[in-house]
Design a protein that fits this description.
The complex is a heterodimer.
Chain A: E1 4-5, H1 19-22, H2 26-37, E2 46-51, E3 54-62, H3 72-77, H4 79-93, E4 100-101, E5 109-110, E6 128-129, E7 137-138, H5 140-151
Antiparallel strand pairs in A: 1-2, 2-3, 4-5, 6-7
Chain B: H1 4-20, H2 24-39, H3 41-52, H4 54-60, E1 62-66, H5 68-80, E2 96-108, E3 114-127, E4 138-148, H6 154-158, H7 160-172, E5 177-186, H8 187-190, H9 193-196, H10 205-217, E6 222-227, H11 231-239, E7 248-253, H12 268-272, E8 277-280, E9 283-289, E10 294-300, E11 303-305, E12 312-313
Parallel strand pairs in B: 1-2, 1-7, 8-12
Antiparallel strand pairs in B: 2-3, 3-4, 4-5, 6-7, 8-11, 9-10
Helix pairs in contact in B: 1-4, 1-11, 2-3, 5-10
The chains are: A alpha+beta, B alpha/beta.
Chain lengths: ~180, ~325
């Protein structure tokens, strides 16, 4: 995806905002900000790109290099939000899912607790604390499984036996 | 009319057309929902991954045509293969392949019914460190078994309505090859029978087949011939979307040795005392590989032992040595 100037490609109103990059619910905010504040004569040129499999031109930001302006994402949403969104976009480009793989099941992910960080709607759930050592974070589903085992008086699989894989997980089923 | 081995390329083109076609997503959603409901998320997620990248695996696979004879040899070798042996990258002669079988591979499901699949695609991958809690790459195998819906098996008689429905559904999607199984299995789990066994094939013979087949390909007993398909076939699969048309690997038993040949290590003194010829069963030798610092199973082909002029005594196992 290579950025190009929007001039000659689309009118300001036709530029679309990809919420995977700008963040959930950001499209109307960005569009409104551009409609109310953007002045092509005095502000940096908007950069757009096409996205494979999707129609239209999509906003990347603006070319603020060498100008007094901050990047568009930072200007509209603030620096902390911008940094987080850029991290997420990089993760998306590298096909890396947010969160950490659960050490107990190797299947689900959890979002580690980071002070001051707000969870996104599509982020994995926060971790549970394993009952095995009362120290290791595991995914919510494994937390449920351990709680049920405990409740039923069944032994918990020790950490040496992790990952706990449900037998038959890779086997051929009858469908 | 295409030769058998040219069919391998045709099927590869057909699979690519299916996996990039408009109904692939819908098919996957149905299939995964069913697996999730029956076997849970743990079983569904590896399948979802395998189906998601199926078009990549098919596109880059080496097309292989497996003759009926080669299939018989593989099945025979599978009987004595120890599936608990650790799996390594070096076990896969072809890290990425699509094998079309001349005759379907038949396995028994938990109900004792015969299930048949005709093709298998696989690819060795390393899952990225982010996918592992230990932050190390995880060597794994992406694998899909394909059922040719025109082939009948034990289910036709036992569950005619379900099979008919399945056939109609795949036919409405324009797919001749239905997904019988799809998963992404880390090497570490491939040697643990409890994880690769399930109702469809409790013995997990599908996986043993891929492992043994790849091991046999490394042996000199198997003749691997690269065949260049006819131009018309190549052009047809190019139209199906195959960017790079590869030569088809045809796997056959090597036939260099004459009837009654004795391997040098059998020893002359011993053979002089043999009063008849008999079949020495194929078996696995636990061979040390010093360069790899590992022991690996190596298949020793069945052969006929004894003097040429002695009568042949047929034991329990029969192997058609002659053409």
């Amino acid at each position: 995806m290579e950025g190009r100037s929007y001039e000659g490609l689309a009118s300001l109103a036709d530029i679309q905002v990809d919420e995977r990059f700008w963040g959930n619910g950001s499209a109307p905010v960005v569009k409104e900000w551009l409609a109310e504040n953007y002045d092509p004569d005095t502000m940096p040129t908007l950069q757009v790109a096409s996205i494979a499999g999707r129609e239209g031109v999509w906003l990347l930001g603006w070319n603020s290099d060498g100008t007094e302006y901050e990047p568009l994402l930072t200007l509209i949403f603030g620096e902390q939000y911008a940094r987080r969104q850029l991290d997420r976009a990089q993760a998306l480009a590298a096909h890396v899912e947010p969160g950490v793989v659960c050490p107990r099941c190797h299947v689900n992910r959890y979002m580690p607790y980071v002070p001051g960080q707000v969870r996104e709607l599509d982020d994995p759930a926060p971790p549970a604390l394993s009952r095995v050592d009362n120290a290791t974070h595991i995914c919510s589903q494994c937390g449920d499984a351990e709680a049920m085992n405990d409740f039923a008086g069944l032994p918990l699989p020790p950490k040496e036996d992790w990952p706990v894989v449900v037998p038959g997980s890779f086997g051929q089923g009858r469908l | 009319m295409n030769t058998g081995w040219e069919m391998a390329l045709e099927v590869q083109g057909q699979l690519l057309k299916q996996t990039t076609g408009p109904h692939w997503r819908t098919m996957c959603e149905h299939w995964l929902r069913n697996r999730d409901a029956k076997y849970g998320r743990h079983a569904m997620l590896p399948s979802a991954h395998a189906l998601d990248i199926a078009h990549e695996v098919v596109a880059e696979a080496e097309p292989i045509f497996v003759t009926e004879e080669m299939l018989s040899l593989t099945r025979m070798a599978m009987e004595t293969f120890d599936p608990k042996e650790e799996v390594h990258h070096s076990d896969f002669f072809l890290p990425s392949g699509m094998a079309l079988l001349e005759k379907p591979f038949v396995a028994l499901d938990a109900e004792g019914l015969e299930t048949a699949w005709s093709a298998v695609t696989w690819r060795c991958v390393e899952l990225p460190p982010e996918a592992s809690p230990d932050l190390v790459p995880v060597p794994s195998l992406e694998i899909i078994l394909w059922w040719d819906v025109s082939v009948s098996d034990g289910w036709d008689e036992a569950h005619p309505e379900a099979i008919e429905f399945g056939r109609k559904l795949y036919s409405s999607w324009g797919m001749r090859y239905a997904v019988m199984h799809a998963t992404l299995v880390p090497f570490d789990f491939m040697s643990k029978p409890q994880h690769v066994s399930n109702e469809g094939d409790p013995a997990a013979s599908w996986l043993t087949f891929v492992r043994v087949f790849n091991k046999l390909l490394q042996e000199r007993i198997v003749l691997k011939t690269r065949m260049r398909p006819h131009r018309a076939v190549r052009r047809r699969v190019e139209r199906d979307g195959l960017a790079e048309v590869k030569d088809v690997v045809v796997c056959e038993l090597r036939r260099a040795r004459p009837r009654g040949y004795e391997w040098p290590e059998s020893g002359e003194a011993e053979s002089q005392h043999l009063s008849h010829r008999f079949m020495v069963r194929g078996h696995w030798r636990n061979q040390r590989y010093p360069s790899l610092k590992q022991h690996k199973q190596k298949y020793v082909l069945p052969y006929i032992k004894g003097p040429d002029d002695a009568p042949f005594l047929e034991k329990k196992r029969v192997w058609v040595w002659d053409r």
